[in-house]
Amino acid sequence: MKVALIQQRAAASAAENRRNLAERIAEAAAAGAELVVLQELHDSLYFCQTESTDNFDLAEPIPGPATEFYGAVARRCGVVLVTSLFERRAAGLYHNTAVVFERDGSVAGRYRKMHIPDDPAYYEKFYFTPGDLGFRPIRTSVGVLGVQVCWDQWYPEGARLMALRGAEMLIYPTAIGWESSDTDDEKVRQTEAWRTVQRGHAVANGIPVVTVNRCGHEPDPSGATRGIEFWGHSFVVGPQGEILAEAGTDACVTVVDVDMRRSEQVRRWWPFLRDRRIDEFGDLLRRYAD
Prior knowledge:
Blueprint: E1 2-7, H1 14-30, E2 35-38, H2 65-77, E3 80-90, E4 93-101, E5 107-112, E6 118-119, E7 122-123, E8 138-140, E9 143-147, H3 156-164, E10 169-174, E11 177-179, H4 184-205, E12 209-213, E13 215-218, E14 228-231, E15 235-237, E16 243-246, E17 252-257, H5 262-269
Parallel strand pairs: 1-2, 2-3, 9-10, 10-12
Antiparallel strand pairs: 1-17, 3-4, 4-5, 6-7, 8-9, 11-14, 12-15, 13-14, 15-16
Helix pairs in contact: 1-2, 3-4
């Protein structure tokens, strides 16, 4: 399967972002892509750098204008499309939601981000309610997709549950970057940790992983920090954690061939699912096993 990763510098205008993404999706489709994955919250700047109730105006219902737009793009380009939207579920109730579209433009399914960070410049708990749809893969014409969002990518439990429910690929729209005070050594450590933990999900579950990150500098509207430098480096790894493709730090469209049949053979060599001691995993349901 040909998979396209669209790594983009965000603009302040949703209309401009959508217009740019539509062009890049068409470019990916022309290159043979069957599955196209976008970055986290791609319709706006990363507004979670500050806490402002005005930013809730960016949210839309699902279905709504955004799903109508991206459904039409998926249909026009004939691709399965993974998007990342700010969902207004009700007044005062909002989610960070990935919506997957089929080739015909219909909604194949959605996933609401489960793990919500609250760190300097990543004040997501102010905006997003944790997801309540569970770790359930989405069935599409190109395969069963285990879609999660950004902070979820650090948790092996979510990846495992997606795999146990039949996911054939893990997908993570992402928004992660460096703070201005990070040293060069710290930047390397962070990037390598981010890449390594996701390669581990591929190995532990015997399935490919696709991660698409934002890129470029976005200022902090409050002036409390010097903003975030989103580091890009969107990548695809195979079921043994092998790097199949990796972008740089700037905007790009990356199309990569992923052998979806390889997972079957890898799981025969390394039958981790067979050997799991599920009778001894009860403590995983506790916050801390002291």
